[in-house]
Amino acid sequence: RKEVEQDPGPFNVPEGATVAFNCTYSNSASQSFFWYRQDCRKEPKLLMSVYSSGNEDGRFTAQLNRASQYISLLIRDSKLSDSATYLCVVNGDSNYQLIWGAGTKLIIKP
Amino acid sequence: GAVVSQHPSWVICKSGTSVKIECRSLDFQATTMFWYRQFPKQSLMLMATSNEGSKATYEQGVEKDKFLINHASLTLSTLTVTSAHPEDSSFYICSARVRTSGLAGEQFFGPGTRLTVL
User: Is A71 at the interface with chain B, CB within 8 A?
Assistant: First the structure.
């Protein structure tokens, strides 16, 4: 089993729709969780951290479910510019080591 | 925000040559820099963790004699791919951790270097 698993997609979603995807992680001791965004042939950029109580940043909402060991990302009112690959990231054995999912590709269509 | 630069952004070389990639933190000091490799449609794979003034820590399966890492200052780390072969062709990305940050996620990424070995 991979340490961090994501549905690779692609998710084809019409503009304005709401889309959500999950990510599961295997290490129950993980404490830090993040969503990164990566555009084609570009470096990843931090989208948001995921807090235990869940958190929202504009159209983006992140949730953590420790019991089932998954995190989720919800995007409301999707824009064309949201098209990207979304990477789920979890800390490894040490706090600064990051374990990366392979990403979920999202395509927003007009 | 913190800026990390990488140079070169892309390189094409012949098999057997060595390629050096530079990673610089432009407006902050980075005690720790990370080197990742990403093959198409795959996740980022950590190759090594580089601490200023000490030897890099390599991940399992990464040959330290092939991927030489030097972190001579708080703003510069270099990765040298020695005797590169076609299977080394990949997207190499560095990231730098902000010195005072206690959060694992506060890593700032360079724009990446796309290496193609012919």
Answer: no
Nearest by Cα to B92 from B15, B6, B24, B17:
B6
User: Which of B101-111 are b and which e, b meaning 16 or more Cβ less than 10 Å from the residue's Cβ?
Assistant: beebbbbbbbb
Residue segments in chain A with a per-residue pLDDT below the cut of 70: 1, 94-96
pLDDT in tens, B20-46: 999 999 988 887 899 999 998 788 888
Surface of A (91-110) touching B: CB under 8 A: 91, 95-98, 100-103
Centroid of chain to Cα A85:
9
Q: Is A3 exposed, middle or buried (0-12, 13-18, 19+ CB in 10 A)?
A: middle
Using a CB-CB cut-off of 8 Å, the residues of chain B touching A101 are 43
Query: 3-class SS at A82?
Result: helix
CA–CA distance, A4 with B59 (Å, rounded to integer): 17
